[in-house]
Specification:
- This protein folds into two domains: about 160 residues, Immunoglobulin-like (Sandwich), CATH 2.60.40; about 90 residues, Immunoglobulins (Immunoglobulin-like, Sandwich).
- About 0% of the residues lie in helices and about 45% in strands.
- The strands form five sheets. Strands 1, 3, 4, 5, 7 and 10 form a six-stranded antiparallel sheet that branches.
- Strand 3 and strand 4 form a beta hairpin.
Length: about 300
């Protein structure tokens, strides 16, 4: 929006989003917009340019104002151009537009300024995803008046588009977990992109990584080696466009794998040594010394 304002804009409104969920933390972000201003003079005119948010995020609307103040005499302004990053788009306009390019918005009219009458022009822009993150982007202005013109295309202030906030959740692990056997860890990240990595940790040790799918979910097949209570965590590392975030710790109890078989031994059940529980050793005589066998040692059923 391009409009007259009668006072300097000191700041803007920032939005702080709080996401809730199981085992989740949010990447650091700004809770309120931070304005910034640049002031300079050229002859009898003093200019003050202000941006409502010097560190906006994609989708935010930034208001840029230029205030004209005259120390003596008067001027009649009839054209003003505002210069902005190519990744910004004009949100609206109240003044008649003379021209729009990828980096400028120009308005036309007749506006008189004097020692007792300042003038402020305001432009609203929406930040798009095409903006580089973490890089200062220049702004500026120029104008034409009845006595001449002034060009200050990179006069500032600069604006740095912030990386987007993210949130990472780690799902609880259900069922029994046995040492040496794999279990699926599942993390969900908001603010990430398909293909972004998610790292999984057992305490301070990174055990592996997964990639986000189209739904923002990453999994990893974890095989715990040690028993006891394990503290597992998912961490989303910072990317070119997104902030890092990590889940809270999830406690997982790991127990030993059962060993051995439950069946009872029946060795010697046919009395190869005459030692079976209900043996009839001697009945046939493994050494064949008489009816009961000279080597028969059992008296049962004899």
């Amino acid at each position: 929006m391009v409009r007259d304002v009668s006072r300097r804009i000191a700041g803007g409104i920032g939005v702080f989003a709080l996401a809730t969920g199981f085992a989740a933390t949010v990447g650091a972000g700004s809770a309120a917009a931070d304005s910034d201003s640049e002031t300079w003079s050229d002859g009898d005119v003093t200019f003050t340019r202000t941006v409502s948010d010097a560190t906006p995020e994609v989708g935010d609307v930034v208001t840029v104002t230029t205030k004209f103040e005259l120390s003596e005499g008067s001027q009649l302004i009839w054209r003003v151009a505002d210069y902005h990053p190519a990744c910004w788009e004009l949100a609206d306009a109240d003044y008649p537009l003379l021209g729009i390019t990828s980096t400028s918005t120009e308005v036309t009219g007749l506006w008189r300024i004097s020692t007792s009458n300042s003038k402020t022009f305001s432009f609203d822009y929406r930040v798009t995803a095409d903006c580089d993150r973490g890089t200062p982007l220049s702004t500026g202005m120029s104008y034409i008046h009845t006595s001449g013109w002034g060009a200050y295309e990179d006069s500032g202030p600069t604006v740095t588009v912030a990386k987007g906030a993210t949130t990472t959740w780690l799902a609880a692990v259900s069922g029994s977990v046995l040492a040496g056997e794999s279990v699926t860890l599942t993390a969900t990240v908001t603010g990430g992109a398909q293909g972004d990595p998610v790292d999984f940790y057992d305490g301070d040790t990174k055990v592996g990584s997964g990639q986000l799918n189209a739904s923002g979910v990453a999994t990893y097949e974890w095989t715990p080696a040690a028993t006891g209570m394990r503290s597992v965590q998912a961490k989303f590392p910072s990317t070119d466009v997104a902030q890092s975030s990590e889940s809270t710790l999830v406690q997982v109890g790991v127990t030993e794998t059962a060993s051995g078989s439950s069946g009872s031994s029946e060795s010697g059940s046919l009395g190869s040594s005459g030692s079976s529980g209900s043996s009839e050793s001697g009945s046939l005589g493994s050494s064949g010394g008489g009816l009961f066998g000279s080597s028969g040692t059992g008296s049962s059923n004899s």
